[in-house]
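Fig. S4 source data, part A: sequence.
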Amino acid sequence: MSRIGRLPVSLPTGVTFQVNGGNMSAKGPKGALTRIIPSHVAVAVDGSTVTVTRNGDSKPARERHGLTRTLVQNLVTGVSDGFSRQLELVGVGYKAEMKGRTLIMHLGFSHPIEFEPADGVSIQVQKELITVTGIDKEVVGQAAANIRAFRKPDAYKGKGVRYRGEQVRLKAGKSGK
């Protein structure tokens, strides 16, 4: 059995979880989220815990067992606490600012880059630190990845947009002797 899939998910206070046919939904203080339950697994709510069981021992059922449990955990964590990703701007003259809902970045190109976040995602900027927050882990991660893709860290000097705490391995440049 899946080590992750067999662990129950406990519901914090203020979070309600429902299973309606092929959909599961969570509602909490930060908002509400809904996901489709993958096939070959069943989700059950027992008071303040949610358990995931698989229907049989086939390969697709084993594959989706741990995945579904993680999706349930992400729903519960998102509506209770939310998710955030932090990005750093590393480089001389690199800066970011918010203008309304649009993130405007100056990353060494001849023009500023404008990024409009998806619904449910908010962005805050403090000097060289960009914080992307929201309740859906997938949408927050994708927004952070899109921002990072505008200027990935350089392999020689390390300049660019990187996740906070990301280690960039620098290559050795040309050697004189």
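Fig. S4 source data, part B ends here. The chain has two domains: 9-80, 83-163.
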